[in-house]
Amino acid sequence: MKEDDEEFEPGSEEFIPPEEQPGRPRRSDEDLTSEIENRQPRKLDEKEVQVIGVYEHQEQGLLPPGFSPPAFVLLRDKQGRQVLIFIDRSVAFAISLALEDKAADRPLTHDLLKNLADRLGCKIERVTIDDLWQDTYYARLSVSVNGNSMEIDARPSDAIALALRAKAPIYMAEYVLENASITEET
């Protein structure tokens, strides 16, 4: 989500690897965990959000011929603030199925993860969308196994698809809500 009103042209911005981005901690080659799992806990002032739906972006003229419009998931908190997160079309389909309380003929990836968690005695407690950095959202999946709680780095879209299947609540940090919420006119 750009703060200014200029249109985004794919390929117009130079990719900077996370380890070279200003303000981001550098990782050593021995560090195999993601940077989000290494962050220090902080007060997030989390607010519960609901998944309103999954939609296709309909704005014409921005995509080259042959490209499908991007999909996004729309979230809303109890104050009416809305956040949209652009997502992969396959995850959009998985979220749509979960919202409609339907299943595919064969288990999709998120169904498989939910089935695996259930069989291993892992409870999906919640999802927290806790950061927004350079137009990228970050999330953590909170799970418990045999009374031990842990948090796992996840893409928000995957975490949402899994939370909907597990009937787990979804939270968003106030910082993210403040910086990413949109109005209905947007």
**What is the overall number of helices?**
4
Arithmetic mean pLDDT: 80
Q: What is the 3D form? A: globular
Q: Beta fraction of the residues? A: 25-35%
Spell out the blueprint of helices and strands:
Layout: E1 46-56, E2 71-77, E3 82-87, H1 89-99, H2 109-119, E4 122-133, E5 136-145, E6 148-154, H3 156-166, E7 170-173, H4 174-180
Parallel strand pairs: 4-7
Antiparallel strand pairs: 1-2, 1-7, 2-3, 4-5, 5-6
How would you portray this structure in words?
- The chain has 186 residues and is α+β, with helices and mostly antiparallel strands.
- The protein contains four helices and seven strands; from the N terminus they run E-E-E-H-H-E-E-E-H-E-H.
- A seven-stranded mixed sheet has the order 3-2-1-7-4-5-6.
- Helix 2 (109-119) packs across helix 3 (156-166).
- The longest helix has 11 residues, at 89-99.
- Mean pLDDT is 80; it is low at 1-18 and 24-32.
